[in-house]
Design goal:
alpha+beta, globular
């Protein structure tokens, strides 16, 4: 028999009544009723209520012990009376009458409460993460993460994929985010880089003839923290397939995500076949390439309206003449909304740094007219044309923004979410997946004004190679795609460029010489020269998947040992200084500021 327990704290039922059992765990709560002391004993599997009578010689010792101490108890299982059942616990039908107990691990005074999930200061939570992880909500999140990864691994194997591990110490990549560098002791002056993703390796696996690969891959990027992005490291489901087209990737991922989200959540998955939205349409209709399709509001471009003579909104007309655009959001059936609703949206826009949002509501008594601060500037004919462009109806309202394109996109994307929240029209009991497709191959860097890759430089451009117009790179589309759920990007992916000659041409557009490509991507370009299959893949983020399933807004709530916003591990005091001997072995010196 196990020394520490015959059962877990989440196992006993009334079928076990009368048995003498041994339980071990943490003291979650104590309640002193004078002659009786109730102790809620907790382990990974649940909570069991235990009690000890005042006549028991261990009563006073147990009464004094600090919460979160680890103890072992032995005693008899009693069935609870009907009026004392606890239906919230799996063990709520029974309790254990303690005969003996033993302290296995004493607990000092706690720096934070464990028995509740109340909000607590982040620095304390991260410094004492081992205590934070005992709390029910975050503990369940981490168990969910484990279950999700196990399910994904099983499903991928069932789909015919092989799991391989790619190197952690590799070479620095000139594309993407900032690398974490590791000095080489045996090669003075040279550095490894931790992989931002196994991108080149997984393509090399396809060149090696393995056909279908996956890995729950650790990735390392020296990036600033965000609510949906950990500083330093994260995990992704990395997969790659040979002899495939874009639709083959979509089919695998849709099957996996549908099964995964239906298994681990009671929320409804809206689409079994995920909608495909082109990048251009997504930016037009939603102002972002990460649209939340639970939100029914859409954006329309009405710039041409402000070139009409019968529109007297001079501020917007002057801006349009100087190159600005006008886009609007239609909100349905808002005629009865108070003025304060519209003014609050306008004030919110000003708080975002914009000049505000113009608005009006469509009405029709004898003629079609617009009510609101700017309604008087529009003729009936211009309003009819707006209704035609935007599919607006009488009783609907329009919020308008006018500025340079990128500023309008940023504002209206956020405004779309803000208005929908205020109107309470987002169905939060659903998951709405979609694919964003047809990304541009290149874009212009706003800072340098140079042409750069817009997405993944190893992607295949759309169209036959002989018909590609390399003199107009900004018109090229790529076989690149993102999968988005509820406004959160889970992953980017692409059909890869497996043709070295084509790769040289595309990299030359972004300013790379043939020598640059040969030096910076030596392993990749060399391998592709020895017979490479058409291939493609994607890498959905594990952390973000679990965030959605756990209904959490911050990625730290689903990460076992996260860092803070400054990329510091407060629990392990990392990053830390190293001694002179370690620096000497690595041929490094610290330059004092």
């Amino acid at each position: 028999m196990n020394t520490y327990r015959t059962h877990t704290c989440g196992e006993l039922t009334k079928k076990d009544s009368g048995q003498t059992v041994i339980l071990s765990g943490w003291i979650n709560k104590k309640r002193d009723h004078g002659n009786l002391l109730f102790v809620d004993l907790r382990d990974n599997y649940g909570i069991t209520q235990c009690l000890i009578d005042k006549e028991n010689k261990f009563f006073k010792d147990l009464e004094k012990i600090q919460l979160e101490s680890v103890i072992k108890v032995s005693g008899k299982v009693n069935e609870r009376s009907e009026d004392t059942l606890n239906k919230e616990l799996k063990t709520g039908e029974v309790e254990v009458l303690i005969n003996t107990f033993e302290i296995l691990g004493k607990c000092k005074e706690l720096p934070m409460p464990v028995f509740s999930d109340q909000e607590y200061a982040e620095d304390i939570r991260l410094k004492y993460r081992f205590l934070d992880l005992r709390r029910k909500k975050v503990h369940q999140n981490i168990l969910l993460r484990s279950q999700v990864i196990s399910f994904i691994r099983s499903e991928m194997i069932n789909l015919g994929f092989n799991e391989f591990q790619t190197p952690i110490l590799t070479s620095s990549s000139p594309e993407g985010a900032r690398d974490f560098l590791v000095p080489s002791r045996l090669n003075p002056g040279k550095f490894y880089a931790l992989p931002q993703a196994p991108q080149q390796f997984k393509q090399l696996i396809m060149v090696s003839g393995f056909d279908k690969y996956f890995q729950i891959a650790p990735c390392f990027r020296d990036e600033d923290a965000r609510a949906d992005r950990s500083p330093g490291e994260f995990y992704q489901l990395d997969l790659e397939m040979s002899f495939v087209e874009q639709e083959d990737i979509f089919e695998v991922v849709e099957k996996l995500m549908s099964k995964l989200f239906k298994k681990f959540s009671n929320k409804k998955v809206l689409f079994d076949k995920f909608p495909k939205i082109t990048f251009d349409n997504s930016m037009l209709k939603y102002g972002t390439d990460k649209p939340d399709l639970r939100n029914p509001l859409e954006i329309s471009d009405i710039t041409k309206i402000f070139k009409r003579d019968d529109v007297k909104f001079d501020i917007f007309k002057k801006l349009v003449k100087s190159g600005s655009i006008v886009r609007g959001i239609v909100t349905k059936n808002t005629k009865g909304k108070p003025r304060s609703f519209f003014d609050n949206i306008d004030k919110w826009a000003k708080d975002q740094g914009a000049s505000g949002l113009a608005y009006f509501t469509l009405e029709c008594e004898k003629n079609i007219s617009a009510k609101g601060p700017v309604g008087k500037f529009f003729s009936e004919d211009s309003l009819k044309e707006i209704m035609k462009i935007t599919n607006a109806k009488i009783g609907d309202s329009l919020f308008l923004a006018c500025n340079k394109k990128n500023d309008v996109l940023k504002l209206l994307s956020a405004a779309r979410d803000k208005i929908a929240e205020d109107l309470d029209i987002i169905n939060k009991n659903t998951f709405a997946f979609c694919w964003i497709v047809d990304y541009p191959m290149f874009e212009v860097d706003e800072k340098t004004n140079k042409v750069i890759f817009s997405h993944n430089p190893f992607s295949m451009p759309q169209g036959e190679e002989k018909s590609l117009n390399f003199s107009k790179p900004l018109e090229m589309k790529a076989y690149q795609y993102d999968i988005v759920c509820n406004g959160i990007e889970l992953s980017s992916g692409a059909i890869r460029n497996h043709k070295p000659d084509l790769m040289y041409k595309l990299f030359s557009i972004a300013g790379y010489t043939k020598e640059d490509v040969d030096n910076k991507f030596a392993g990749m370009i060399n391998a592709l020269s020895y017979g490479a299959p058409p291939h493609g893949g994607i890498a959905p983020g594990i952390d973000r998947i679990v965030m959605l399933l756990a209904n959490e807004k911050n990625i730290r709530e689903v990460t076992l040992f996260p860092m803070n916003q400054n990329a510091q591990d407060l629990m392990m005091n990392s990053p830390s200084e190293v001694n002179d001997q370690q620096l000497k072995e690595l041929n490094l010196a610290i330059k004092k500021k």
